[in-house]
Structures are given as C-alpha cells and as structure tokens.
C-alpha cells in the first residue's frame, strides 16, 4: 500500500506541475510530447481495447500531448515495428503498448535500443530486478468491480445459478471468477457460478455457444472475461437473461438486460505516467490501483436493478473506498474441498500471492 | 517477349488502379488522396526504417505462401498453412525439452528442422487423405489446421508449459544460443532477422526445382493433368504427397523461425494468421514461386504503410484491408487480359480483316 500513497502524492504534485506547464510557466511546455497507444484489437470492440482507447481519447482532449494510435496490431514482429515506427517516424517519447502479450519479448526487445523512450505496459509483468527502468507496468484491481457485479447478480438471480464465460484459466481470470462468485455468495450463500473457458481471448463463436449452453442449464445472470464481451452480452440478452459487463460498458448493446459492469478507468493510470514523463520525473514503473484509486469503476445500474441490490452494492463499495474491505480472506476452500486460504489469513489487493491464483473457490462449477 | 512484358505490366496496372480507387475512397472520407498516397509510399518504402519494416513483415509470408503454392502446382488447393506453422513453432520450442544440451548454430538448425518436419508431416497428411481416402484436401487441410491449433494449445498450456508463465501460457524460452538474430550488425538488415533469407532461398529453391528439374516438371505434369501423368507412368501419389510435405515444411519452418527469431518461446501469439495471409500471397502470385517474393514484399509493404496511415491520418485498420481488397480484385481481374493486353491496347487492322484473308488462304 505504501507504493500507492507514494504514487498518489506524486500525482497531486505532478498535477500541480503540469497545470503550471499548461499555462506556459513550466520548462516543459515548449513542445507537445508524442504519446503512442497500441491496441491488439479494434478500438471499438466494446471491450478491452475500447476501454484503453476511450481513455486515450480523454488524454487527447487534455492537450499538451500529441496522441498517435494503431489498432489490430498482432503480438508478433509487427508490434516491434509499430513501436519502432512510433519512435522513429512520429517521435514518440512514451508508448502504451496495451496488450498483455506485447511485453515479452517485444517491449523487452525494443526498449534497450531506445533508452530515451518510456514504455508503460498494461499488465503485471514488469520486474524491478530483471527489466529496464524505462519500462513499467500499470494495472487495476478490477476484481473489486467484479465482486460488486457479483453482489448485484446475487440479488437479481432467481435460479441462483450464475454463468461466467472466460477465456483462459490464468490467474487474472480466476481472480475475477472467484471475486464475482464471492460477491454473489455474500448475498445468498448457496449461489453457484458455472464457468466455461473458451480457450482464447477472442472466440466469438465459442462465446456464443458457451452463453447458449449456460442459458440452457438455467443460468439467468452472466458475466465474462474475454476481450470483447459484445457476443456474450447480446446472446444473453437475446435469451432473455441478465448480464453484468466487463472491460467497458456494454449497456448500449442490451439496455434491458445490462445490470451493471466492471469497467477500467485507465485515464488515471495514463495521467500519472504521462505527467511523470512531461515533468522529467522518474518513470513510474509500478502503477496499480482499485476502486478507491480511480483505476476501475462500475457501469451505471440498469433500470431493472432493485433498490436492495443497489444499496447492498453501494455499502460494499463504500467499504472498498475506505480501504476496509478485503475480498480474499480465510478460511476459504476451493471447489475440490481443499483449503486455499487458511483461517485468519487476509490478503490485501497488493499481495503478490493473489497474482498467481490457480484455483476456483467453492461455489464455482468448473475446472482449472 | 510479349508475355514477359505482360507479366510485369498487368500487375503494375492493377496496382495503379487499386491506388487510384483507394485515393477516391479516402477522398470520400475527407482525407486528401495525395497525402494518403505519400504516406503509403513513405510507410512502405520511404526510408531505411520503412524498408526494414516491409521486409520483416514480408519474410514469413514467403514461406507460408509456398505452403499453398507447392501443392497448387500439383493441382491441390491446400489452405492449411496456419496449422503447419503453429506445429512448426511447437516443434521448434519442444525439441530442447528432449535434447536439453542443444546449442549453437547446429542446435538452431536442428530446432528449425524439427519445426519443418512437423509441418511437413501435417500437410502430407492432407495429401495422403486425398490420395488414399478420397478426402477433399481443401477441407481436410483447413480442418487439420484447427486440430493443430488445439494440439498446440494443449501442449503449450499443459505438458510443455513454463510454470513461470502465469498469465500468458508459454513453453520455456529457447536458450540464447539457439535463437536467430538480425542478418547484419548495422545498416538496412540490422533490424531484419534471418527469416527473410530463409524465405528467399526457399522460394528460389522451389522455383528452380519446379522450372529446371525432372521431378519438378513431373509435379507440374501431375498438376496439369493427373490422368495423363498416370498414363505416362509418373508416381502421382508420391509426387502429390511430396508437394504437400514440402509446402508443410515451408510453413513449419516459418513457425519455427517465428519462435527462434521473434517470440523465443511457443505461445498463443504465434497464432497470428500468417498462414492465412500466405494463401492470398500465393494466389496473387499465381502459385509461382518466382513471383512470391515480390508479392510478399507488396503485402509487407501494405502492412507497413497501413501502420503509418493509421498513426498519421487516424484511419481505421480496415482502410488498409480496403486497399488490399482493391489490389486483389484488380490483380485477379487483370488475368483476364493475359495474352490479350496488346490487342486490347493497340487493336490492329488485320484483326478486323482476318476473316476475309483467312478464308482465302486456308
């Protein structure tokens, strides 16, 4: 947590510094810095890439920086060339390669050749001992917003069966599934979440099949962790089921089925990193935050969400904002009956153990 | 002579037409066509960096295009290059598990060979299924591709997974000495890896084989008319399976190079559609290995230029697909003019008079 407080204090200082810069008082206001954003999919995918692009659009409006963007860049030599191109052709001084797969080996190959350029990668991979100081990572504790999704879903479900369409059984995804389930179980302890893994980040056909198959099994509230939640949201709505969104807001796609959603608010992270670059401060290598830091947020509630659900979720949110709420605390068993968190053990969001989560908790139907 | 001129002029005319159409298209969107054309050229071929960008993007396409072109010369439409490519990547990353002391140039050669071998076996399977079980090779190679990707994921996320690769399941990275670096220390080829050389050499070798050797000629006979080939006693089945295997070896090699030169380990990022783009390259090159490198260069150029176009004009990625679409349609349409270009451009008087003269003489 100290690193947070440290960061936040910096942010305030930097905000002041950049405000001064914007009025031409600072030494760094002569030339707009070029910042590059790279997305692995389309900018309007209603998901992971849209969340990043929406924040980039806000950065554009701030002024003082020139934004260059490129979408649909695969995690191959292509992204290395795109990064190099942003540096060589556009004069970028700071890059946001936003896909998880851009880090190793791509950023790690380009960064040493361009020591004056800063790289901010989305995901938890930067390691102080191994990686250059010009590289860093930013990420958010979105499991908090998934927990709130779970609370709302727990109130709204009639069948007490929830569905989760997930890409791969990796720690980030498992943490969301578990948080969502814990949120729901906090409302009604006998709720179950059935999870289907599609195998990859963007598998529209399998996502639709998974949603339909879950709907056939009596599941009435869905959420997901795939790059583009569009298909799951639309399919669930078509089947007359309810849905909690992920990454960005999908409310427009299914206004009558969309309860709430776990959204990124990347602009907070972007600002921290950009302002450090503008004022010549060291590159913030480890930028993390949850609800209270403004890194994640919830979509506005749909009109069908009951007052009881809203009140319960808002109470939990208030506790999270105060920092007095912990999602993962013992005793906790996985869905094979094995104890995974001992009684009395409480994990803070920053604890690295949570970043290697490899189990599904009791109440989740599915296998890692 | 005329046909040689046509072979060069027709695609160039088609490209010019595509660029004109693209200019009109961006103009409708409110972008100056002149600016778009300038950026296209600068992005693809404008300076040293652009050339590096283009060449690097072209390199794997040469190999994946061969995976389509070689079977095509034997009369088969095989579109399973992507499957051979991912298995090639897997083979390359997996060999050091069996032989941990591999290293150096010989080790690099072996891991690449492992990739090529797996790719060869995979597409040979499509050839075998066709010749001995009567299974349509287009469908079977496509479906085999899906099986290959499933196998790849099974091994990468299961038995071969590096436990340290938490959120991006990968195999263990190749040791430093097995990896393939840049072709040159500095200059144009400093940022281009050896995959380009492999691609060029493979295309030239395939061209020589098909154009100047007896087995290559036999293969083209099979592709021209399989019944005739059997009639004159050519080992049709063997030649067809060989063509599939060589194609698969090319795609497998492409996958192995992706791992050894770019990714360092096998993971899902390898599945990036290079095999599918190879299909387009091969068709535009009319399955002619000599034409594949320039066509691949064109595709690499499109991708490199598209990158700059997105960044400078804020155009969506799809705009480059539109340009590619125009180019394909026109290049394929230009085929209709092959052998008739000169007549269309300069219709000669005898053309009209011929019936009269012909009747008198013959």
Give a verbal description of the structure.
The complex is a heterodimer of chains A (about 375) and B (about 350). Chain A has about 375 residues and is of the alpha/beta class. Chain A folds into 2 domains: about 1-140 and about 265-295, Response regulator (Rossmann fold, 3-Layer(aba) Sandwich), CATH 3.40.50; about 145-265 and about 300-365, Rossmann fold (3-Layer(aba) Sandwich). Chain A has helices spanning about 1-20, 50-60, 75-90, 105-110, 145-155, 170-185, 205-215, 230-240, 265-280, 305-320; strands at about 35-40, 65-70, 95, 120, 135-140, 160-165, 190-195, 220-225, 240-245, 260-265, 285-290, 295-300, 330-335, 340, 365. In chain A, the strands form 3 sheets. Chain A has a 7-stranded mixed beta sheet, sandwiched between helices. In chain A, helix 4 (about 105-110) links the parallel strand 3 and strand 4. In chain A, helix 3 (about 75-90) packs parallel to helix 4 and helix 5 packs antiparallel against helix 10 (about 305-320). The longest helix of chain A has 21 residues, at about 1-20. Chain A is globular and about 55 Å long. Residues about 1-10 and about 10-30 of chain A have low confidence and may be disordered. Chain B has about 350 residues and is mainly α. Chain B has a single domain (about 30-315), classed as ABC transporter involved in vitamin B12 uptake, BtuC. In chain B, about 75% of the residues lie in helices and about 0% in strands. Chain B has helices spanning about 1-30, 35-45, 50-75, 80-100, 105-135, 135-155, 195-210, 215-225, 225-230, 235-265, 275-285, 290-315, 320-335, 340-345, 350-360. In chain B, helix 1 (about 1-30) runs antiparallel to helix 13 and helix 8 (about 215-225) packs across helix 10. In chain B, about 50% of the residues are buried. Classes of the chains: A alpha/beta (about 375), B mainly alpha (about 350).
């Amino acid at each position: 947590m100290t690193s947070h407080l440290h960061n936040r204090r910096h942010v305030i200082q930097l905000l002041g510094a950049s405000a001064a810069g914007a009025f031409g008082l600072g030494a760094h206001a002569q030339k707009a810095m070029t910042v590059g954003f790279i997305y692995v999919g389309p900018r309007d995918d209603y998901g992971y890439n849209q969340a990043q692009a929406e924040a980039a659009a806000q950065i554009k409006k701030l002024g003082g920086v020139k934004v260059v963007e490129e979408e649909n860049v695969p995690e191959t030599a292509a992204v290395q060339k795109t990064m190099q191109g942003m540096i060589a052709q556009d004069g970028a001084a700071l890059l946001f390669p936003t896909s998880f797969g851009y880090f190793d080996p791509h950023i790690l190959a380009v960064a040493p050749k361009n020591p004056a350029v800063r790289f901010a990668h989305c995901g938890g991979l930067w390691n102080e001992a191994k990686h250059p100081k010009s590289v860093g990572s930013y990420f958010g504790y979105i499991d908090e917003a998934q927990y709130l999704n779970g609370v709302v879903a727990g109130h709204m479900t009639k069948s007490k069966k929830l569905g989760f369409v997930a890409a791969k059984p990796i720690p980030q995804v498992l943490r969301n599934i578990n948080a969502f389930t814990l949120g729901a179980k906090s409302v009604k302890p006998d709720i179950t979440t059935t999870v289907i893994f599609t195998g990859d980040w963007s598998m529209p056909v399998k996502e639709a099949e998974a949603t339909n198959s879950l709907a056939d099994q009596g599941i009435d509230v869905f959420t997901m962790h795939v790059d583009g939640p569009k298909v799951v949201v639309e399919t669930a709505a078509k089947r007359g089921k309810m849905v909690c969104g992920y990454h960005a807001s999908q409310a427009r796609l299914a206004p009558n089925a969309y309860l709430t959603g776990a959204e990124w608010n990347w602009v907070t992270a972007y600002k921290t990193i950009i302002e450090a670059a503008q004022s010549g401060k060291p590159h913030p290598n480890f930028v993390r935050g949850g609800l209270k830091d403004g890194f994640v947020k919830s979509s506005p509630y749909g009109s069908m969400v009951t007052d009881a659900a809203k009140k319960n979720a808002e109470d939990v949110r208030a506790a999270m904002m105060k920092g007095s709420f912990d999602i993962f605390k013992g005793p906790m068993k996985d869905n094979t009956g094995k104890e995974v968190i001992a009684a009395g053990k409480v994990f803070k969001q920053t604890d690295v153990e949570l970043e290697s989560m490899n189990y599904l908790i009791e109440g989740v139907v599915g296998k890692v | 002579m005329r046909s040689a001129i046509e072979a060069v002029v027709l695609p160039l005319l088609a490209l010019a037409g595509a660029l004109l159409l693209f200019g009109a298209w961006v103009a409708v969107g409110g972008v100056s066509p002149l600016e778009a054309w300038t950026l296209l050229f600068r992005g693809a071929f404008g300076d040293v960096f652009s050339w590096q960008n283009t060449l690097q993007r072209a390199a794997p396409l040469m190999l994946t295009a061969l995976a389509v072109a070689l079977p095509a010369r034997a009369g088969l439409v095989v579109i399973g290059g992507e499957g051979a490519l991912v298995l090639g990547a897997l083979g390359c990353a997996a060999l050091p598990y069996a032989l941990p002391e591999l290293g150096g140039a010989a080790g690099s050669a072996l891991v690449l060979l492992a990739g090529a071998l797996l790719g060869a076996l995979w597409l040979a399977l499509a050839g075998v299924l066709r010749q001995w079980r009567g299974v349509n090779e287009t469908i079977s190679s496509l479906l085999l591709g899906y099986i290959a990707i499933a196998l790849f994921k099974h091994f990468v996320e299961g038995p071969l997974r590096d436990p340290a690769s938490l959120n991006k399941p990968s195999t263990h990275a190749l040791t430093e000495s097995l990896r393939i670096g840049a072709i040159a220390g500095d200059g144009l080829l400093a940022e281009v890896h050896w995959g380009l050389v492999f691609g060029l050499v493979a295309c030239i070798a395939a061209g020589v084989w098909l154009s100047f050797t007896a087995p290559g000629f036999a293969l083209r006979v099979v592709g021209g008319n399989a019944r005739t080939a059997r009639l004159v006693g050519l080992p049709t089945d063997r030649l067809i399976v060989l063509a599939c295997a060589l194609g698969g070896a090319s795609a497998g090699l492409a996958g192995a190079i992706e791992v050894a030169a770019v990714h360092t380990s096998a993971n899902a990022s390898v599945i990036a559609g290079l095999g599918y783009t190879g299909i387009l390259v091969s068709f535009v090159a009319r399955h002619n290995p000599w034409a594949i490198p320039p066509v691949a260069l064109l595709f690499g150029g499109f991708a490199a230029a598209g990158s700059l176009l997105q960044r400078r004009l804020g155009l969506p990625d799809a705009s480059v697909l539109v340009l590619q679409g125009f180019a394909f349609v026109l290049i394929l349409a230009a085929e209709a003019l092959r052998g008739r270009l000169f007549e269309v451009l300069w219709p000669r008087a005898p053309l009209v008079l011929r019936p009269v003269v012909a009747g008198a003489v013959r």
